[in-house]
Amino acid sequence: MASTHQQQDPLTYESTGVSITAGNSLVNRIQPIVKSTARPGSTASIGGFGGVFSLRDAGFGPDAPDIVTAIDGVGTKLLVATAARDVSTVGIDLVAMNVNDLVVQGATPLKFVDYYSCSKLDVDAATGFVEGVAEGCRRARCVLAGGETAEMPGVYNVEEGHFDAAGCAIGAIKAGRRILPAKDSMHEGDVLLGLTSSGPHSNGFSLIRKILERQGLKYSDPVPWSSSSTSAPSSTSTTTTTPQTLGNALLIPTRIYVRSILAALDLSESHMASSRQRDPGTNPNPLIKGLAHITGGGLYENIPRMLPPHLKAHLDARTWARHVPELLRWLKRAGRLADGEFARTLNAGVGMVMVVGMDAEGEGENEERLRLVEDVLRENGEEVVRIGSLVGAGAGEGEGEEAERVVIQGTEEAWAWW
Q1: Rounded Cα gap, residues 409 and 111, in angstroms
Q2: What is the rounded radius of gyration, in angstroms, for the C-alpha atoms of the chain?
Q3: Alpha-carbon distance 232 to 12, whole Å?
Q4: What is the pLDDT of residues 131-153, one digit of tens each?
């Protein structure tokens, strides 16, 4: 029987055993260790979405591209997949978590390699997983260039079919094309666009599994929200049908934003080239100045990664409230998640945030800039919402340290589905 969540304390990611704070502390501690490996081509700094290496600076010629790499896993979403006996989509997740981190820096994904580890190899399950990886690569237009399978008896639960997986993506940025974020060009008034998510993507699943445990629900149970209010939006979901079980809903894969963002970045490059032709000798700011992939740490932790220190993001949750997937709404209600927890552990319905420059002199021209970017994103299948803007770092009010660089207003009204 399902638990009565009103009688239980609100859940947090920390209470399930995952500490974002500890993860951030580790990054801070190992920075000097990593920096000691610097060489021509890279300063060996960490904290961005991907690692950038300049082949030009490394001596490979003036026209050599910049190489960007990313590495990630799927986390405990793999436990949901094995319990639901469906590993067909987590391979897509693995690719998505990596290639989305590449494209936010302006890189075109080129190749992907994966690592699959288990205690006893189940050939059918491993094949199904690799099929998912290949599908993710096709969606991102990158080649699956190889991988590694490790069979390690005693490490994983054989009876439950447990395994782990990680992947690495490599992309390139043409010589002369700007690496994002363009922090030096950002200023107050630049607009923030949100690209909606298909669900929790591949983050927060330790918290999600605890919510289901409290509710006494199984992955085979019907979705615990009204089916009449549930639809799979064509622009955000990778499925065309409404999920019938909790397992189906939780395993909707992470959205891959590569094609739409690369199209928008091409538009930005064309806009700058046209500006140079009209006014030779100028160095116009890009239309798209920065991108943030909303993964672990949510809106609060990921948006600041693309911002200069003198600016912060001011968001209005009411602008995208109706686009939040039903699964995320239910998780917030069932877990009694505080607004801050919802936007820090989960993506709150926004999978990618984009900074669009408002550099024109007239309001009408700036509006046209926005529409150009929005149109190309929508033409490539995205659901796009104007979710906020950049403001001075001292402006607005936040709640606690986590909100210092990101302020989200209107949450009481926007997230009051319960």
Answers
A1: 40
A2: 21
A3: 27
A4: 999 999 999 999 999 999 999 99
